[in-house]
Every structure is written in C-alpha cells, then in structure tokens.
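Kindly inspect this chain:
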Amino acid sequence: MLRLPPFRYVAARSARDAARALADHGPEAMPVAGGTDLYPNMKRRQFEPKVLVGLRGIEAASGIAVNGSLRLGALATLSEVAEHPAVSLRWPSVARSAGLVSSPPLRNVGTIGGNLCVDTRCNYYNQTEFWRAAIGYCMKKDGDICLVAPGSSTCWALSSSDTAPVLMSLDAEVTLVATGGERRLPVRELYGSDGIEYLAKRPEEVLTEIHVPDRTGWRATYRKLRRRGSIDFPILGVAAAVRLGGGGVVEDARIALGAVHVRPLEAADAAEFLRGKPLDPEVIEMAAGIAYKPAKPLDNADLAYHWRKRMVRIEVGRALRELAGLPTGDMGPMPSA
C-alpha cells in the first residue's frame, strides 16, 4: 500500500491567507483543494511538501455565477460545472470537458481550478518511487535527464488538463491572488513551455476565479481521446469554437489542442484559415490538415505517438463537422498498443 508522507495541514480562510502561507513556507508548501491529483502524486513521492495549504475554506473562490458572462469559482467541483444548467446551455464545451474528467466520484471532489493547474504527465514520471528508482530518475523529479528525449534540456511531460483547451478556445481569463494584490490574465498565458515549470502562475499565487465571456452566437465543442471511456487522462483533447455568419461562413474561430505538448496549444493557423470560408466538408478537411501540424506528441503517454499525431487531424475534423451539423463518423476500435 502506498502511503502519504508526513505533512502539516494549514487551513486558509481567504485567498490572501493562503498566499501568505505559501510565501512563508516557500518550496516546502503546496496548495490543495480537491487533492485528486496531488495526493496520489504524494503517495508516489513525486511531491513531498512539508506543508499543505488547504483552500476549501475560501468562500470567495466558490460558486458559479451567470450574468451575461460566466464566473466559475476555482473551487467549484467538476461535477457542479458539468451539471450546471446554464453552463450546459450557453457554454456546452465547458460542461462537456468538466464532465469528461476522470470518474464521477473524483469529479465530485476535484475542482475546476485544480484541473486547470493539474500536473503534467509522462510514462516515466507517473510511476511509483520504486519503479522510478529502478530505471533511473527523470529530470522532473530527482534526476537530470528527460528519459523520453535524452538530448533535451527541458522536460517534455504533457499537459493533461481537459478544461484548459476549452477555456483557451473561449478566451477565458483567470484571477490570481498574491499577498500584495491580484492580477487577471488570459488562460492561454497561464502555461509555461517546460514540463517542470509548466505554470506561469507564481508558486505563492492562488487561482480564485475563472471568467468566461459571453459566447452568444458561437458554437463550441470538446472531444477527448483516451483508451477507456472514463478514468483515463486525455491522450488528445480538441476544443473548437466557431461563429458563423450568413450562408454558414465562418466569421471567427478558435481551435486548441491538449495532451500533445507540455502546454495546451492553439492551432492559430487553422483558425485563421477558416475565417471567411463556409464550414463545408472540403474546408473542414483542409483546416484539420493545418491544425495537426503544431502537435508534438512523444512516446511518453498511452498508445503510439505517431498514431496520436494522426488522430489530431481526425479529431479536429470531427469537432468541426459537429459544429457544422454534419455527421462526425465513428472512431472505430482503439489500437492495442
């Protein structure tokens, strides 16, 4: 049985209290809300904080509010987001992505803010301490080399958030609170370019709110690829949003990809290609061919990386066909390895 390492729990009453505790304890402290990813990582000794700063008591970071735009408290559970009637009606891709995370029991505990900040993943990293010691540690924890890309000076662990690509595609923003004040930045700016330093958020900052603008007139969706129908992290996520004008011509578009890089990627060239064109099968096929080019899957996640690369093109096409009201086609059987 894997057991948690010893730690001290500090319950914060406000975001400023949490930020102050994180700043005071420095690298020895980590924030925790639902803990659905943090606690398993601690059991595997990927994280060994001496202090956990509990965020559950921060009332200002709770709840869901709809007033033209959408305000998601970072402590809203994934189940609350997925099942909220207004979110499902007006921001369906947000509800869908939250509802596809893990399993119902974990969605009842895990938070939307936690999913945005979830740790990057890699087959060489997400193992027990005994397993990692047997093969030699990777640079993300205790080692000095990226085992999936030994010549790389940076870590290539993958972004594993389902909600991040969707919120990027909707131009959402987050509020971060520190001891000296707060700042608001786009979700697309929340992520770094290294699997270790994967968040642009400073360690002492606390994510309290997510702001999604009114998307009346837009169509949006999210597609998730994984081996099983639940539990599994994505090996590909595709978020797409389009605004159609007269004659079905695309006035604006956003496409974001998850689990194909250390950060969620925007397929900006594909979105630009779509603008001013009808969302018909030929245009969709060409846009999908452009969208898959920035994807850089490596051999560090489930299933073969070259298959995952091809599936980017297929799943982007399916997402766009869904938005166009066209048949998406069946995915077919998964490969065995």
